[in-house]
Design brief:
The chain contains 4 helices and 9 strands. By secondary structure, it is an alpha/beta fold. It has a single domain, classed as Rossmann fold (3-Layer(aba) Sandwich). The two termini are 20 Å apart. Bound molecules: inosinic acid and magnesium ion (MG).
Length: 180
């Protein structure tokens, strides 16, 4: 599996340190609030489980699955809800936890959808951000790393469902997806 990686962009240690920092910031800013983490399946799950262990204020957690990609490496702009929340979010302080923001289309859609359900607030936390490919201007409230315009895998991110379990973030070799 690591043979398919051209370059390690962010190491396991760098990820760990950043997640601790983000957890501290979130713990301070959500003191006395009604924090509910919404983890975006499947890519956001590894980051979510690491992050919540660093948060010291009470929280609830729920999951949503949305798809904007199918099996390609670039966005189609079409967002589908594959799994909705199980909990009512009215009055809650929502923090959406994502693996990566690329075009921003997925997050823009998700944020608008959640805002229509009457929460107290909705903020966005992502471990990776690819500013070069942004198509819509979404506000990223907590962000781990800005990365260049490369297709990356690992730490939850996949290519056709593989590589999510790599403990680092790496650039996938071009020959792996060159046929598309
Ligand atoms: P956006 O709507 O273009 O911002 O796409 C966000 C979603 O696309 C993420 O949640 C990922 O699932 C996927 N994605 C975007 N860039 C990458 C990448 O470099 N590697 C793997 N998945 C990616
Ligand atoms: Mg994905």
């Amino acid at each position: 599996m690591t043979n398919d990686i051209a370059e390690i962009l962010i190491t396991r240690e760098q990820l760990q340190q950043k997640v601790e920092e983000l957890g501290k910031m979130i713990s301070q800013e959500y003191r006395g609030k009604n924090l509910m983490i919404i983890s975006v399946l499947k890519g956001g799950v590894m980051f979510t489980t690491d992050l919540i262990k660093e948060i010291t204020v009470p929280l609830e957690i729920d999951f949503m699955a949305i798809s904007s990609y199918g099996h390609s490496t670039s966005t189609s702009g079409v967002v589908r809800i594959l799994k909705d929340l199980e909990t009512d979010i009215e009055g809650k302080d929502i923090l959406i936890v994502e693996d990566i923001i690329d075009s921003g289309l997925t997050l823009e859609y998700l944020k608008e959808l959640l805002l229509s359900r009457g929460p107290q607030s909705v903020k966005i936390c992502t471990i990776l951000n690819k500013p070069a490919r942004r198509k819509v201007d979404v506000q990223v409230d907590y962000k781990g790393f800005d990365i260049p315009d490369e297709f990356v895998v690992g730490y939850g991110l996949d290519y056709v469902e593989k590589y999510r379990n790599l403990p680092f973030v790496g650039v996938l070799k071009r020959e792996i997806y060159a046929e598309e």
